[in-house]
Amino acid sequence: MPQSNPFQDKLVTVFGGGGFIGNYVAQGLLERGARLRIASRNPEKGFSLQPLADLGQLQFARCDITNEQSVAAAISGASYVVNLVGVFSGNLTKVMGEAPGTMARLAAKEGVEALVHVSAIGPGAESSAEYARAKAQGEQAVSEAFPKATILRPSIVFGKDDNFLNMFGQMISTLPVLPVFGPDAKLQLVYVDDVAEAVLNALENPDKHGGKTFELGGPEQLSMMEINHRIAAAQGRKRRFLAMPDGMSSLFAALPGTPMSRDQWTLLKAGNVVSGDFPGFKQLGIEPKPLGLFLDKWMIRYRKFGRFGLSNERASS
User: Fold this and answer.
1) 54 with 8: CB under 8 angstroms?
2) Which of 98, 96, 92, 80 lies closest to 149 in space, CA to CA?
3) ∠ CA 25-221-21, rounded to 5°
4) What count of Cα atoms within 13 Å lies in the side-chain half-sphere of residue 168?
5) Which has the closest alpha carbon to 57: 23, 79, 33?
6) What is the pLDDT of residues 172-216, one digit of tens each?
7) In the prediction, which pLDDT does 1 show?
8) Which residues pair with 242 in a beta bridge?
């Protein structure tokens, strides 16, 4: 008789498990009875998970994913491996291009049952963005070393504690006039809980989902201008948004110390929506949730008077 819960008492190593998406993946694994190892350069970022775990269910490993011995130690004894590491600074090629291949090779050597590698929509070996090139290299390395690995490509991930909605939310709450870079760029924002569920579903059923690539996008495509307007409306604020020309946006992204890197601008300009060439949430048994389901509630903290700041009539501040 097949085991109803494949994670029960099995060790799962999650690289990058202390990060934004990792926190949600980790919670799902703990709920399903897995023994969890958070492998990260800064594992203390995952300490908030400790109250959710039973005695001995959660462990932390300080890991440098560019160091093979460090990766091998993190994988040792694991039945499942998840890679969530993604960066926009530092040596992108080493971290997202080479390191995933090392993980996959060592996972295969260890006899790991399933491997899920989280990439991103729009990887491209010929892209002008180093981020996209590194992601493409990482996907290829993982597939070669662990052919039954599942690759997930989410669009921009949103959640209550993300760095996307909250960055714009803070700016909109403060500034009366705001520039919008890539105003017509289309994004298919995807809810972090849905991405975490996709990871778990793929991980627990490698016979069905292994060896495949999935593109994960939310149920609607929104332009950057639309997203800004929605955030302002959720705050009850009237704001003026200025569509910035591409030349000025590119120049801004090239300046040091700005919140947007050149790679981020290049990727934003291209948009971030599913291509339709790969399976998606439906094939993983998930119905993705729209941004509108959460935005009003999450923007309460940015309203002028918090939860008392939005009555039947929208504020003008």
Assistant:
1) no
2) 80
3) 15
4) 26
5) 33
6) 999 999 999 999 999 999 999 999 999 999 999 999 999 999 999
7) 38
8) 179
pTM of the model: 0.93
Measured CA to CA, the distance from residue 122 to residue 102 in angstroms comes to: 22
Amino acid type, 157:
V
Task: Tell me the pLDDT tens digit for each residue of 87-133.
Answer: 988 999 999 999 999 999 999 999 999 999 999 998 888 888 999 99
AA letter at 222 = L
Measure Cα distances from 141 to 32, 90, 151, 159, 213 in Å.
30, 20, 11, 30, 14
Dihedrals phi, psi of 254, to nearest 5 degrees = -80, -15
CA 151 to the chain's CA centroid: 13
Ramachandran sector of residue 134 (left: φ over 0; alpha: ψ -120 to 50; beta: rest): alpha
Neighbouring C-beta atoms of residue 315, cutoff 10 Å: 14
